[in-house]
Amino acid sequence: MDYKIQDSDIDVLRKAGVSEDDIKHCIKVAEKALEIAGRAKANVDMELIGRGALFHDLGKAKTHEIEHGKIGAEMGRKLGLPQAITDIMEKHIRGGLTEEETRELGLPVKDYTLKALEERIVIYADRLVDIITDGIVEIKSESEAETRFEDILKTYPKYGKSEKTMRRYLGYHLEIQGLMKQEVVE
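The chain above was modelled as a monomer; its predicted structure follows.
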């Protein structure tokens, strides 16, 4: 199923107070996530991927601190967004934290690990968009961010964050790149 980003959802971000720069980022992540999902040979919910990616940083209307995932999910629930979308918003911080990591970071103790492929595609797209748009890593094309993903995460701490976070991101990268390379069996 194809899915197109809805202007009405972008208006929700605007009305919530998300900055135009953050809205541009959210749109870019949604576009990248939908593109990746289209290339992955897997049965996924494209609307969940598009809307989850678009709303993942809703909490940045209130703060850019690590709590923006939790705050965004609370805002999303008040707006009546489906739980699958607010789950993406809440769990996208550092690619899905374990309970132990939430204690270390002072977040509500909870398992934020990613269960659904749709969640992992959104988080992978978010990391790629940061690499592509930040201007920190010199790349010639968006596809280079994918081919050099492991090297970039290991070279630039901003993207790998911690050893645990980097391992999660690399796992998502390998899983999703593997899906893209699979033969379609009919």
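The chain has a mean pLDDT of 94.
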